[in-house]
Amino acid sequence: MSIAEVYDMTVTRQPLVPPAPPRAPDDMTALQRMRVMRNSPIETWGKRAYQDDIVQGRFLSHSSFIFNTPDAIRHVLVDNYENYSRTPAGLRVLRPMLGQGLLIAEGRAWKHQRRTLAPAFTPRAVMTLVPTMIAATDETIAKLKAASNGPVDLREAMQRMTLEIAGRTMFSFGMERHGATLRDFVMEYGDTLARPHMLDLILPLGWPTPQDFRRARFRKRWTAFVGQLMAERRAAGKSDNGPARDLFDLMQAARDPETGDAFTDAQLGDQVATMILAGHETTATALFWALYLLALDSATQEQLAAEVRSVAAAGTLDLESLKFTRAVIDETMRLYPPAFLIARAAGGPDTIAGLPVRKHDVILIAPWLLHRHEKLWRDPNAFVPARFMTGTPPDRFAYLPFGVGPRVCIGAHFALVEATLALAKIIGTFRIALADKEPVIPIGVVTTQPDRSPMFAITPR
């Protein structure tokens, strides 16, 4: 049976097409793009970006390229990845929160960090953390049951739950005392400092902008808070020659396999910030979007609930048996990729897809565009989890929820396990519906976020 036949058999009704931002006019000027980008870069892309293999333009004095072909993406992110680094604007936005952590480190520093952290994120290591994930999810479900007689903010609930999982897996303690402060930091930064201003895009990285001064003040407060978390964890002591209790134990004990070097205290703080932020915010957002889609698509929600009942009848939630639940997560991250844009600046001249690339030219690889590209996907704007159950995975360079190549997200397996288990348990416990009919529009602010937090109605099954 062909993939198309399997697809047609599993899609027996008109699929849901969720709300999306309007596409920009293709004749939008550079100044207009900069203004729109302040709200969301997603709104700067027109029809050509969803149809053409390559969209070439200008960014200030340099050429810019949007690449939508797997071969070009392989070249930039795998074959010649060392020639492409984060853009100055990207570094301005991320460094205050992540410092020199794994997500934005370059060159030898990145290789050292990647080698040192890798053992903590193997599938075997992640499976030891599953009981912690399940316990935090069960506690969230208990709180939701108590609040199920009125409207519920599931986005906030998912943020609190994934933050609790991040705190326990990182430090072996809950985030009751620190969770509100950490969420305040995240919301403050996202609302005020993560959106690039025009000067952030124009000035060289070494020239501070007014926003950079505000970011520096924010970073001072943020690093002090992370240091407080680390001090509290250290006061609890180390494991007594037994297995590591948490990621902090693993990260403190980690040594570069080539040099034997451990992380410095400052490096460890940046890794903690990176893992907590990347580990909870992106998963919380993915779970929110999955719940939103299932609230719009009751038939798919019931199909997922039926799978959970069948799997749970065996006495435990076996990840390998939650195939449809995982397909819903995969399809959610296709429509709402955690990282909607990968922006790189060329470090030297190159040739991509026959086009000359000069030093400082800007390369854009946008999972948002790739995942909705008309040449790469059937029904690209529709919510169709069945596309991930055909037995044939999508092209590795057309589906990038966690990036690809040497810099693929180190926590991808952790996030997928957490999201799949949490979604199964929540939908296995509740029927969910939206409490209002206003559309929720995705915007790009570091991650693919909703433009508002809708209220949900939840009913115990």
TrEMBL record:
The keyword Transcription regulation does not apply. Coiled coil: none annotated. InterPro entries: Cyt_P450, Cyt_P450_CS, Cyt_P450_E_grp-I, Cyt_P450_sf, Cytochrome_P450_monoxygenase. It holds the Pfam family p450. Heme binds at C409. Its cofactor is heme. The keyword Heme applies. Gene3D superfamilies: Cytochrome P450. One of its GO terms (molecular function) is iron ion binding. Keywords: Heme, Iron, Metal-binding, Monooxygenase, Oxidoreductase. PANTHER family: CYTOCHROME P450 (PTHR24305), CYTOCHROME P450 12A4, MITOCHONDRIAL-RELATED (PTHR24305:SF166). Belongs to the cytochrome P450 family. This is Cytochrome P450. It comes from Bradyrhizobium macuxiense.
